[in-house]
Design goal:
With 536 residues, the chain is mainly alpha-helical. The chain has 23 helices and seven strands. The strands form two sheets. The protein has a five-stranded parallel beta sheet, with helices on both faces. Strands 2-3 form a two-stranded antiparallel ribbon. Strand 2 and strand 3 form a beta hairpin.
């Protein structure tokens, strides 16, 4: 109940006939042009909470409530079917304060002017608050607001100036609160500022807590990520060992069956990854190497389709990685392997027209590597292999001189690598192999005596390797092939008895190899060749 309630001014009959009518904290009068502003202000006023320390304070306007509700906004609360004049009169008669939104549109509105006149006639002593939205007061205040009332008395309205270069929206709203409650403006400003400060402090504390929580979560996530990365590196380190040291040892004892299991275990690791695209580049490169190894073993077992499928998948991966960074040596190297293996399958299948472009692409990548990193002996070694591959096709097809010349280039490149790393005894196998292909190139040119000299150099190297490591299946295979090739050369030069003896020794060698690894298809192919008469 406010101090103004005994000043209804509607007369006894009106009061008795509207005993249950709603009481309003204020009546909001405005022009239809200012509808949007009025709606926002109405919503703010009804949702505004008086600072707790001021609630219950006694003022000239009555006891200060917790909220400024209800506030009548005529265009929002009048039923469409009701009489406008009757509803407005009823609302004005039961409103403590008249709040007028002043603007040029409001000054020109006869309805705003009429509502001011009606309110003052009903409640001569009740306050009228003028909220200036835009324009100057003389252009925006309705005439009834600043003119004399029916008794000839001119009332000065309480003003709240929303213009940004005057009070501004925030202070203007607080002035309206002061006018509606009777509280001094400085008290409202002070208490509201304190409340805002408490709210800011609370929000800041909450933000700090959330930030700390997120920081802790980030730390845990980073630790989990680091642990996952550590586990990935450990798993892929094991795979790297399986692809290098373990693989070489298993190849040395001719155990393709164990190699297959090792390769499949490594490939299963990547099959468990949910998204291969999310794997780091080094993981994808390692996966391509696994595919190369598995394809090689499939080919040795005679599974040509399986080998091609794995080599093509590896080629797709390495091509994508190389396209993303064409100057990365590791990616160039990986793609070079893909080109080689696809060319190798075609070469063994005697599809030389398809194998040669692969080998040429392999050589181009190897040449790119040695240009980028000329001090890297592994890349020079790769170039020697690539040159040797072109040499093999030239020998097989009795090709042109420039391609046959790659046989000599391959030998020179491998000898250069041996000078770069004299302690690397694995190069002995590569150099022996280059001597063998040089011998074949000389045979194509009809230079059998020179070819026999190259074969003798090859045989001397391989015999030494077998003597040093008699259980190494790779060395045994090379020794078998060296004796067989020497047998062919000796036969062509007329030394038939010596040729037959060497061929028989080679047959015994390949029989022992097959007994140790029956699944090796390459050795069975050589067994068939050794069974054929000389000249075939």
């Amino acid at each position: 109940m406010t101090a103004y309630e005994d000043l209804d001014g509607t007369g006894g009959a009106a009061e008795s006939g509207n005993a249950g009518a709603r009481h309003y904290r204020a009546f909001l009068s405005y022009s239809h042009v200012d509808e949007r502003f009025a709606r926002r202000l109405h919503r703010w006023l009804e949702s505004y909470r008086i600072p707790a320390r001021l609630v219950g304070t006694a003022t000239a306007s009555g006891t200060v409530p917790r909220q400024l509700t209800p506030i009548f906004r005529d265009r929002a609360e009048l039923p469409a079917a009701s009489s406008l004049d009757q509803e407005v009169r009823q609302a004005l008669s039961r409103s403590d304060v008249l709040l007028v939104l002043c603007s040029p549109a409001a000054r020109n509105s006869r309805w705003v002017d009429a509502e001011i006149e009606l309110f003052r006639s009903l409640h001569p002593g009740r306050p009228v608050i003028a909220a200036l939205l835009e324009g100057e007061p003389q252009d925006s205040f309705p005439a009834s607001l600043i003119g004399p009332d029916a008794a000839g008395i001119t009332h000065e309205p309480i003003a709240a100036d929303f213009r940004t270069d005057h009070d501004g929206p925030k202070l203007a709203r607080l002035k309206i609160v002061a006018g509606l409650t009777g509280i001094a403006l400085d008290q409202i400003i002070q208490r509201d500022a304190q409340r805002q400060l408490r709210r800011v402090i609370a929000i800041t504390l909450l933000t700090v807590l959330l930030t700390l929580s997120m920081a802790l979560m980030l730390i845990f996530a980073l630790r989990a990520q680091k642990e996952a990365e550590h586990q990935r590196q450990q798993a892929e380190g094991l795979i790297e060992f399986m692809l290098t040291d373990l693989r070489q040892r298993l190849e040395g004892v001719g155990r393709l069956d164990v190699l297959q299991s090792v390769n499949e275990q490594a490939l299963d690791y990547y099959a468990d990854q949910s998204d291969l695209n999310a794997l780091p580049a080094d993981s994808l490169e390692r996966r391509a190497r696994i595919l190369h190894a598995m394809g090689e073993d499939d080919h040795k077992r005679g599974d040509r389709a399986g080998a091609i499928a794995k080599f093509e998948e590896a080629h797709r991966v390495t091509a994508t990685l190389l396209a993303a960074d064409p100057r990365d040596p590791s990616r160039i190297f990986a793609h070079a392997q893909s080109e080689f293996w696809l060319g190798y399958v075609d070469f063994i299948g005697k599809r030389f027209d398809r194998a040669l472009p692969r080998f040429l692409a392999y050589r181009a990548l190897a040449e790119h590597l040695v240009r980028l990193v000329p001090e890297n002996q592994a890349y020079w070694r790769e170039l020697g292999y690539a040159q040797g591959n072109i040499c093999t096709i030239a020998v097989t097809l009795k090709g042109p001189e420039d391609q046959l010349g790659e046989c000599g280039n391959a030998l020179k490149t491998m000898q250069r690598v041996a000078r770069m790393v004299p302690e690397d005894r694995s190069l002995d196998v590569d150099i022996a192999n280059r001597h063998a292909w040089m011998a074949d190139a000389l045979r194509v040119q009809g230079r059998d005596v020179e070819a026999l000299q190259e074969r003798s150099r090859q045989a001397a190297i391989v015999q030494r390797l077998v003597t040093e490591d008699p259980k190494n299946a790779t060395y045994q295979q090379d020794w078998m092939l060296a004796r067989y090739s020497n047998a062919q050369l000796l036969y062509s030069l007329g030394e038939k008895s010596r040729a037959i003896q060497l061929r028989e020794e080679a047959r015994q060698d390949v029989a022992r190899l097959i007994a140790g690894d029956p699944q090796n298809n390459d050795w069975r192919v050589w067994q068939e060749k050794l069974a054929a008469p000389f000249g075939n």
